[in-house]
Each structure stands twice: as structure tokens, then as C-alpha cells.
């Protein structure tokens, strides 16, 4: 029975569309639906330009994410001066590590440098809860709820002029292992939230053509800010029997 899952495939070109975070943002920003939003972003390629620093200065705090969506290491950066201090160190460490074989230094910050050193700077969006939507062909099968990722105290406006350490200037986060954002919480969504989430899942499916999709949505007073898409994503510790039945029902009869 399991071998028949070979026949359930999405188009490779559709899957490739969400390999890079910049492509994910481009897809999401093209969607039009009341209550659906995307954070402001800036693509940083190979060098720190004056335009990048200006963006960082006007959109702080922000995340610095590798453009490779398979890399889950990212930085929460306080402001432009923090970026200016952090970025050269990352570049220097990357060059040094390349000569020593990067596989031998798995804990180095240089694992952030993927996709030829391309990053996506993404503005931090204040939010009350994170909706983890798990959908099959636009139909939500399960929703997991996570606590909001709060800013460090040093990031607060009244503390920005204070002298700070490197730790206060930025925070490194692994989105797959950080307990703060991986722990589920109890939350009861309103009917309006459920309806909007379903509309978003359906619209993303129609636009992306991807059958099994995880959608990360930040709940804000304005609706949902969609920050990430994950292909063939499933909720942790959840029985996927119902999904398997759905997949099998779509298979041709041989």
C-alpha cells in the first residue's frame, strides 16, 4: 500500500518555486485577499550596500534569513548598526571555514551563508500567536498554535541608544530546535480566524499548485502575516492516517 505513494507527485517546477525564500515572498506578495499580508523584505546579495543599511535602519528590528529555505538558522537583528557589525563577521568566518571544510565546523555561524551568500532581510512583525496551518489541496487538516516570538529587552526602543553587547545586538535562532517557537500552546481560534485561514490556504494552493503544504501565519490586528511555506509538511506527533486516506483516494486504480 505504501509503495503506491510514488504516484502522488506535484510538479517539480512548482516545488522549486518555494526553494528560495525570496521566491516564497514573491509568490505570497502576488496574492490579493483582505486580511492576508506579507512582511517587508530586502534581498541582500554578497555585500552590505548602503541601500541595505538604509532598509535596515527604517525596518528594524528584522530577521536575517538565508535565502535557502532548507537552512533553518536565522538571526533576529536589532538595527542597521547591528547588521553592519554582524555581516562582515559572517563573511569572514565563511571564507575561513571553506578552507577547513565546512562539514567539520557544524556549529559555526557560517551555516547561514547559503545560496551564494544571499540573505533575505525580513521585517519583524509584532504578533499575538502563530498559526501553523497544515493543508491538503487547500483544505486545512490541522492547525497547531505557537507562542509569539518576543523581542529581547535590548531591542526595545527605549534601550536602543544604550551600549550593548553582541548578544544584545542580535540573536541567533534555529527555527526547528528553538523551544520558544517549537512549543505548542492552547488557543481557541474565532470563527472569523478559521474562515480567513481557510481562504488563505485555498488561495495559496491555487497559486502554488502544491498539494501538501505547511503555512506559517502570524496573527495580528490586521489579519494574518504569512512568513513561510513548507512543502510536504506535517504536524509533529499527529496521526497522518486521515491524510494517507486522502492521498490514496487520489491514486489511479491499477
From TrEMBL:
**SUPFAM superfamilies recorded:** Glutathione synthetase ATP-binding domain-like
* Domain of life (superkingdom): Eukaryota
Record Gene3D superfamilies: ATP-grasp fold, B domain
Q: Kindly list the GO molecular function terms attached to this UniProt entry.
A: ATP binding; inositol-1,3,4-trisphosphate 5-kinase activity; inositol-1,3,4-trisphosphate 6-kinase activity; inositol-3,4,5,6-tetrakisphosphate 1-kinase activity; magnesium ion binding
Coiled coil feature spans: none
Biological process terms from the Gene Ontology for this record are: inositol trisphosphate metabolic process
CC per GO annotation: cytoplasm
Q: What is this protein called?
A: Uncharacterized protein
Which organism's genome codes for this protein? Giardia intestinalis (strain ATCC 50581 / GS clone H7) (Giardia lamblia)
Amino acid at each position: 500500500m505504501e509503495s503506491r505513494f510514488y504516484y502522488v507527485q506535484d510538479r517539480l517546477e512548482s516545488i522549486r518555486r518555494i526553494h528560495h525564500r525570496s521566491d516564497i515572498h514573491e509568490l505570497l506578495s502576488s496574492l490579493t485577499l483582505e486580511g492576508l499580508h506579507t512582511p517587508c523584505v530586502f534581498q541582500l546579495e554578497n555585500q552590505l550596500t548602503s541601500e541595505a543599511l538604509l532598509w535596515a535602519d527604517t525596518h528594524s528590528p528584522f530577521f536575517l534569513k538565508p535565502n535557502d529555505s532548507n537552512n533553518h538558522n536565522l538571526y533576529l537583528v536589532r538595527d542597521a548598526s547591528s547588521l553592519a557589525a554582524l555581516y562582515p563577521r559572517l563573511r569572514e568566518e565563511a571564507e575561513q571555514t571553506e578552507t577547513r571544510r565546512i562539514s567539520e565546523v557544524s556549529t559555526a555561524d557560517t551555516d547561514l551563508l547559503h545560496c551564494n551568500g544571499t540573505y533575505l532581510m525580513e521585517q519583524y512583525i509584532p504578533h499575538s500567536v502563530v498559526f501553523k496551518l497544515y493543508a491538503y489541496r487547500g483544505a486545512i487538516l490541522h492547525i497547531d498554535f505557537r507562542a509569539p516570538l518576543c523581542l529581547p529587552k535590548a531591542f526595545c526602543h527605549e534601550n536602543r541608544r544604550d551600549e550593548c553587547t553582541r548578544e544584545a545586538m542580535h540573536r541567533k535562532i534555529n527555527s526547528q530546535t528553538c523551544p520558544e517557537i517549537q512549543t505548542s500552546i492552547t488557543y481557541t481560534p474565532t470563527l472569523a480566524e478559521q474562515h480567513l485561514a481557510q481562504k488563505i490556504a485555498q488561495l495559496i494552493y491555487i497559486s502554488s499548485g502544491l498539494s501538501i503544504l505547511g503555512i506559517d501565519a502570524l496573527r495580528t490586528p490586521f489579519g494574518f502575516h504569512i512568513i513561510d511555506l513548507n512543502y510536504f509538511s506535517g504536524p509533529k506527533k499527529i496521526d497522518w492516517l486521515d491524510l494517507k486516506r486522502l492521498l490514496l483516494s487520489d491514486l489511479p486504480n491499477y
